[in-house]
Amino acid sequence: xxxxxxxxxxxxxxxxxxxxxxxxxxxxxxxxxxxxxxxxxxxxxxxxxxxxxxxxxxxxxxxxxxxxxxxxxxxxxxxxxxxxxxxxxxxxxxxxxxxxxxxxxxxxxxxxxxxxxxxxxxxxxxxxxxxxxxxxxxxxxxxxxxxxxxxxxxxxxxxxxxxxxxxxxxxxxxxxxxxxxxxxxxxxxxxxxxxxxxxxxxxxxxxxxxxxxxxxxxxxxxxxxxxxxxxxxxxxxxxxxxxxxxxxxxxxxxxxxxxxxxxxxxxxxxxxxxxxxxxxxxxxxxxxxxxxxxxxxxxxxxxxxxxxxxxxxxxxxxxxxxxxxxxxxxxxxxxxxxxxx
Length: 341
Ligand SMILES: [Zn+2]
Ligand SMILES: [Zn+2]
Hints:
By secondary structure, the protein is an alpha/beta fold. The chain has helices at about 40-45, 95, 140, 145-155, 170-185, 195-205, 215-225, 240-245, 270-275, 290-300, 300-310, 320-325, and strands spanning about 1-10, 10-20, 25-35, 55, 60-70, 80-85, 85-90, 110, 120-125, 130, 165-170, 190-195, 210, 230-235, 250-260, 280, 310-315, 335-340. The longest helix has 13 residues, at about 145-155. The protein is globular.
């Protein structure tokens, strides 16, 4: 038997003892070290995720040590620390036939559509495993998956060194987009949010911050960029007010990239898009190449990633992790579950 964080229905999660999984042909049994909790897990918990069905072992952001391999090892050995690429594609739809497997029509994700890694053990195909760089701690390696989201986001937006960027939203994804941009040579990184404690974390990471509740974001960004506006605006909140605000600070022929998921239709100042010929793109998860780059990147930005982890909770006592995230008295950045405790 093993312990696992189980989604049992809307607003119902529990840590239960369930049978330890048995690796199938081509799979590795992984002893999980850490598992991150993210926005889509909050969606599952609240019962609004379109695909997740109870009962489900949660967790798609995990790192662990290979304990046993059955069949094709793909070069992996027991004892190696690994992170899995958690996306499963159908192989047949238009996206899959055209090298866009990560936006497969029937995309499935470990920990959302099938049992995940917020548990003591999990089984994964060996062909989706990536080795964690030696000097990177398990805790930091647990951020590889959301880091891959940030890497993909920069690629989608056509980021180039010396770009001046605005990031709306100082949550974990906004902060990670800023961290990758900093490492990739951004000339200026402005992060906006309404929450002063979140902005304080951003300042600690060296970003320029603006409280969008107190300042006019468009005016602030224009002042900061010689009147030009930002080369790229990354919308990482998914909030209605941010959708309305995202066009103003963007420069002529600049790029707006939707990162935070807008679950409802939003009013957008489309006239801004005409007059300055703005470009709009959106991102969803990451390709294998992005994931590979994120693994490599953990080696170089380990200290920054450490700053983004605000809470580590033991698996045995993590049933209230969503209360912690929703607690208005707590400022949570990245929350990690320690699956060894
Ligand atoms: Zn995630
Ligand atoms: Zn497909």
